[in-house]
Amino acid sequence: MQILAHGIDLVDFPRIEEMVERHDKRFLDRIFTAKEQDYANSNKNSIEKLAGRFAAKEAVLKLIGTGWRGKIAWTDIEITNNFAGQPEVNLSGEVKKISDKLGIEHVSISITHTANFAIASAVALTDTDEKK
Questions:
Q1: 57/32 Cα distance (integer angstroms)
Q2: How far apart are the C-alpha atoms of 29 and 42, rounded to whole Å?
Q3: Could you report the average pLDDT of every consecutive run of 10 residues in the chain (132 residues)?
Q4: For position 128, what pLDDT does the model report?
């Protein structure tokens, strides 16, 4: 595997908490898939989990080099957990099209939390030797 790109993001919990309080379901549905919302709601600190996933989505947008614009939807990036609890990235829609064009075959993600912040780091990987 070869590393093609890296993205990182930091999100403070109050920012996400304010958006949830102000916009409730409208914000949640625009940013998070049903699976992501269910995961957050099944945890003691749902804001921490939402902030982690928000940071992960931002990190993925940074590694594809676009930011959030055009036809990209926040829900084109879904962060789930595997059987061991490790976060995984599932791409769809416009983000999947862009990542395919860039030759990205896998995105590895890591999320960590402090008392007030969530940090995510995303790495784009490919099996090929050259960037497309």
A1: 10
A2: 17
A3: 94 94 95 96 93 97 84 96 95 96 95 95 86 50
A4: 73
Rg of the chain on CA atoms, in Å = 14
The residues spanned by each domain of the chain are 2-126
The identity of residue 75, as a single letter, is: T
In angstroms, the CA 84 to CA 75 distance is: 23
Contacts of 97 (CB under 8 A, 6+ apart): none
Torsion of CA 6, 124, 33, 50, to 10 degrees: -30
Class of domain 2-126: alpha beta
pLDDT of residue 129: 63
**Which residues, in sequence order, are bridge partners of residue 27?**
none
Task: Give the 3-state secondary structure of residue 113.
Answer: strand
Residue 130: its pLDDT value, please?
57
Q: Which amino acid is at 102?
A: L
